[in-house]
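Q: Give me a protein?
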Amino acid sequence: MDFISILSIFVLACFVGYFVVWAVTPALHTPLMAVTNAISSVIIVGALIAAAAVGLGGSGAVSKGLGLVAVALASVNIFGGFAVTARMLAMYKKKERPAVVSK
């Protein structure tokens, strides 16, 4: 594929992603975040394969280094996403009111 085709696919994906994300209602945002975190875990599998340098035929040290960086960044993304999702879910919990004691 030439550069113009790849660029046009990228620009189209940006537009579609923008309109899809902004069309999500606030009630669906938290489940959507949880699913995106689960999808990000697939990145870990690919990064572990790259870190193992199985069948790449290139320099093993470079692919292992890039795989290690990918594992670290994807881990931060996943754990940070789950932390944000947990905080968002905590906002929907009912707060306990102290018991009123009348005399």
About this structure: The chain has a mean pLDDT of 77. The chain is about 75% helix and 0% strand.
